[in-house]
Amino acid sequence: MTRLSVAVRGLVTALAALLAVTAASATAASATARAEPEPRAPREFVALRSVDPTIIQEMRYFTPHNFMGERVDGYRQPLCILTRPAAEALHKAQTRLLRKGYSLKVYDCYRPQRAVDHFVRWAKDLDDETMKTEFYPRVDKSRLFEDGYIAEKSGHSRGSTMDLTIVRLPAKPTRPYVPGQALAPCYAPQDERFPDNSVDMGTGYDCFDTLAHTLDPRVQGTQRANRLLLKDTLEDLGFVNLAEEWWHYTYKPEPFPDTYFDFPVARRSVGHSR
User: Fold this and answer.
1) Active site residue 245
2) 234-267 burial, b for 16+ CB within 10 Å, e for fewer?
3) Which pLDDT band, with edges at 50, 70 and 90, does 221 fall under?
4) Which of 212, 180, 173, 179 lies closest to 196 in space, CA to CA?
5) How many CB atoms within 10 Å of residue 129?
6) 173 pLDDT higher than 70
7) For residue 36, is pLDDT > 90?
8) Which residue is catalytic, options 58, 134, 245, 254?
9) 82 forms bridges with which residues in the sheet?
C-alpha cells in the first residue's frame, strides 16, 4: 500500500469517527430535549369547568375558525384556563345571567405566549390572507400591528383575561367551520355572518373593525343592549372591558399583573387543581 493510500485511509477513518461522535451528541441532545418536562401552571390557575361547568366553552383557537385559519400553537385541548379569582368571578356573573335566561360563553381564556408568537409570525406574512373576508375585510394586513390588532404581548397570557359573549337559553347547537367554505364579513347582519348561538352583538367575535368597539355609536338597539348587558354584569363584579373589543374583559386585581406564562392549554397543565 502506498503512503498516499495510508493517508487517505487514515483521513476517512478520522472523518467517520468525527461523524459518529457528532451523531451521538445530537442523539443525546435530542433525548434531553424530549425528556425536558412541559411548563405547568402555578397553583393559582384552574380549569374553568372545575369552578363552573355551566359556562359554555367554544375555544376558537383550538379550531381553524379564527383569523389565521388554523389551530393556534399551544392549544392542546379546547379548554378554558384562568386564575382562580377570575374563574370565581365569572361563576358569579353566570349565576346572575342564568336567572335572566342567559349563559356566558367563552371563546378564549388563558393564552400561552407561544400562541401570541404564532399570531405575530402570521401577521408578518402579508401573503397569507386566508380569513381576511371574515375577520378583517376593511383592514390592510400590513397595518395590524400599527392599528393594535396584533401585539407581541397579550394580557391573556397573564391568566385573568378572557374573551366571551352571552347565549340565550336553551343554547342552540352551532355547526363547525369547514376550511375553504365561503366567508362573510364579521360585521354583516347576524343572519349572514358565520352562525353563532350567541345573542347579536353587532359583529362576530375577533372582528378587526371599529364596529367591534364596545360603545361604537353606530351600534344601537338590541345589539347595544346586548353589549351593555354583558358589560354591566361583568363590570359590577370587578371586570374591566377593553374598549376596542366588546368581548374582551380582564378581572382586577390580577394575581399575576406582570407575568406572561407559556404553559400549554391542556388539562395536565392544571392537573393539581382538578
Assistant:
1) yes
2) beeebbbbbebbbbbbbbeebbeeeebbebbbbe
3) very high
4) 173
5) 13
6) yes
7) no
8) 245
9) 46
